[in-house]
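tokens incoming
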């Protein structure tokens, strides 16, 4: 009986830790991305996690774009944004709790991009 209680307690603690890590994904994030021509672009994310749903906005230059079909699974997350030209861009990321950062990958117009986001302390 004690063993069953200990295992149940351990599982509850693990679920709570995982939920806390996912909740930490919420907030404002910033990154710099170099395009194929060597130009730097500032990227911003505003994320909100509610269970396994992810909402918010993504912004480079111009107006923020709404996050669509956002979902969170463990430390992994994905969403889509539709750019001003009507192109749907799928985005895949991973939250890294240890470094309090986000590793993000996406492809646009046949070019693959990677960016590492840090919390945006300036806003």
């Amino acid at each position: 009986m004690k063993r069953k209680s200990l295992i149940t307690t351990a599982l509850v603690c693990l679920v709570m830790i995982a939920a806390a890590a996912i909740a930490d994904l919420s907030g404002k994030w910033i990154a710099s991305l170099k395009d194929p021509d060597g130009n730097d672009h500032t990227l911003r994310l505003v994320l909100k996690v509610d269970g396994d749903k992810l909402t918010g906005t993504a912004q480079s230059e111009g107006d923020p774009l709404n996050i669509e079909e956002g979902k969170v699974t463990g430390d992994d997350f994905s969403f889509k944004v539709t750019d001003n030209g009507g192109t749907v861009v799928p985005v895949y990321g991973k939250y890294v709790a240890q470094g309090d950062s986000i590793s993000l990958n996406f492809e646009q117009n046949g070019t693959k991009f990677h960016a590492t986001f840090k919390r945006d302390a300036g806003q």
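note: The first helix runs from residue 2 to 23.
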